[in-house]
Each structure stands twice: as structure tokens, then as C-alpha cells.
Design goal:
The protein contains 9 helices and 12 strands. It is α/β, with parallel strands linked by helices and 310 residues long. The protein has 2 domains: 85 residues, Arc Repressor Mutant, subunit A; 218 residues, D-Maltodextrin-Binding Protein, domain 2 (3-Layer(aba) Sandwich). Helix 7 links the parallel strand 8 and strand 9. The two termini are 63 Å apart.
Length: 310
């Protein structure tokens, strides 16, 4: 039975349901003689007679009646499997693991894209993983994460693609009692004014692109930063700022983080200090769900470029 052509089972069911070769042939879109021949081929393969050939049409034998339900179940399972494979290929089913850095989640672009993806592909099991940029690069390269939103560009390994989603300005984050901001509303500060400050930065190993961008901007402003602390997560830098341990430079979208004791100020300098939000994914094998999310990112960026301002 395992060697029976599924096409023959479809022919058999059509004849069984129509009880007539001519009607079954019309339903299948083939001529009657080839259909009759294929039914005989099926009977020969099974070693049984499936129909009584009568003047008024075709009547199932006992063996034929026994085959009907099994044939329907087999074909239904095959159709279900084919449909499932197609849906996975088209990104409408399956599983998608999306990674993101903690800071990326605070830019409205990321949750909006995730929400739109879920609405367009409700049958995809979406798994979200938060980690550092460095860890996410490794996870994507090894296939443990399908696609990830990370900070900064630092090149990718073999087989991993990277695309800049947006750039946003960076802000200086001060303790609320810092002399530069205490008792006055300050709209901006020159980066060079931070030359003597103790800086709290995101650990370079966790996000080399963003770290290096800060060092480069400081150098362009005429000083080498005094890095007092390196935090494992960008959000951790704000907690250290609130504790009065120093000043930090963070993407503008992080001002949405309501941490008591932190004041944000715009930064000016000869080199624009901006934070990239990038998307990375593994080139092969790329699932349909991964392609669908990448398309959603590009579509949303094109539709509403205003969201790319931090």
C-alpha cells in the first residue's frame, strides 16, 4: 500500500463519490478512457476489485467500500502536510525567534514591527529573546536566534547579513543633582564639557559599535573619555547614573525609561553622536517567517520614516 500513487487514490475517490466514470472524469478534468485505465492499475496494485462495472455506472465492492475512508484520511493528511509546508515557507506558520537588546525595545519602531508581524502571521509561534548585541550576533550566527535588533555596526560573521534600520540621536544622562543640570533646565550640552566627567558606558564586548562611536565622537571633540564604569546592559548604565556614579551617553529613545534621579540633555559636537539600530539575520537557511519579518521592517520604515527619529 505504501507504493500506491496518491494520484490513483484521488481518482478512486472521485469515481467512488460520482459512481460514474464519465462524471468522475469531468470532475477531474481528464478523459474517461485514461481514468478507467488508472482505476484498473490501482486494482492491480492492490490485488482486489474495487468496483462492479454496471450498465448504469460504477458500484463499490466490499473492498472498495473499505478503502474509501482510509483513502480520504490519507489524502487529507497529505493535503494538510502540503498546506503546512507552504504556510511555513510563506512565513505564515512555524516558529520565529527574535532577539533584541534592552535598549532596542524602547524605540517605538521595534514593538510596532513585532505587533504588525503578529497580526499578519498569527500562526507563527513568536519567541522573543533579550540579550546584548555581542551575544545576539553569536546567537544569530549559530542559528539559535533567527533575526535580531541590535545596536551599532561592527561587521558580521560569515553567513550573517546586517541592515541599518534607523539612526537616532544620543543624549547625555546626568544624575539629577549634578551641577550641570541641578536647579536649571538645560536643553543641550557640548560633548567637550564631559571631558572631566566620569563616564558610564555600555560594555564594549557587549556592543562594540556603539562604544566605538562614543569614543570616536569624544576624540573629535578633543578629549579621551574617562570611562569609570562599563555596564553589561545599556539600561544598567542609567541605574548607575541615578546612583550618582557618573554620566552616560545613551540613545534618545531611552528617555522613555522613567528612572527617578536621571536627567537627559541633548549633546552637540563636531561629530554627530548617533546610535544605530540594526537588524541582523542568518542568510541560510532563512525561514519564510524570517523573510516576512524583514519585509515588515522594510515596509514599516518606508511607510513611516518619522518613527525612525529616536
Amino acid at each position: 500500500m505504501a507504493s500506491v500513487d496518491l494520484r490513483l487514490l484521488r481518482y478512486f475517490l472521485a469515481v467512488a463519490e460520482e459512481s460514474h466514470l464519465t462524471k468522475a472524469a469531468a470532475r477531474l478534468g481528464i478523459r474517461q478512457p485514461p481514468l478507467s485505465q488508472q482505476i484498473r492499475v490501482l486494482e492491480q496494485e492492490l490485488g482486489v476489485t474495487l468496483f462492479h462495472r454496471l450498465p448504469r455506472g460504477m458500484e463499490l465492492t466490499e473492498s472498495g467500500r473499505a478503502l474509501v475512508d482510509d483513502a480520504r484520511n490519507i489524502l487529507a493528511l497529505v493535503d494538510q502536510a502540503v498546506d503546512g509546508v507552504r504556510r511555513v515557507s510563506q512565513g505564515e506558520a512555524g516558529r520565529l525567534t527574535v532577539g533584541f537588546t534592552g535598549s532596542a525595545a524602547f524605540h517605538p519602531f521595534v514593538p510596532t514591527v513585532i505587533r504588525r508581524f503578529r497580526e499578519s502571521a498569527p500562526n507563527v509561534r513568536l519567541v522573543l529573546e533579550e540579550s546584548s548585541t555581542g551575544e545576539l550576533r553569536e546567537a544569530v550566527s549559530e542559528g539559535r536566534v533567527d533575526v535580531a535588533f541590535i545596536r551599532g555596526a561592527h561587521g558580521t560573521g560569515s553567513g550573517v547579513s546586517e541592515e541599518t534600520v534607523l539612526e537616532e540621536t544620543m543624549l547625555a544622562a546626568f544624575p539629577a543633582d549634578h551641577p550641570a543640570v541641578k536647579g536649571r533646565a538645560r536643553s543641550q550640552i557640548a560633548l567637550s564639557e564631559l571631558a572631566e566627567e566620569s563616564l558610564i558606558l555600555y560594555r564594549r564586548h557587549s556592543g562594540p559599535g556603539l562604544y566605538d562611536a562614543i569614543i570616536t565622537a569624544c576624540s573629535a571633540s578633543g578629549f579621551s573619555p574617562r570611562v569609570a564604569q562599563e555596564a553589561p546592559r545599556m539600561l544598567s548604565t542609567l541605574s548607575l547614573v541615578a546612583a550618582g556614579l557618573g554620566v552616560s551617553l545613551v540613545p534618545a529613545s531611552l528617555r522613555r525609561v522613567n528612572i527617578e534621579g536621571v536627567v537627559y540633555v541633548n549633546v552637540t559636537g563636531p561629530v554627530a553622536l548617533r546610535a544605530q539600530l540594526n537588524l541582523i539575520w542568518r542568510d541560510t537557511p532563512m525561514s519564510g517567517a524570517t523573510r516576512k519579518l524583514i519585509d515588515e521592517v522594510r515596509r514599516h520604515r518606508a511607510e513611516d520614516p518619522g518613527l525612525t527619529r529616536g
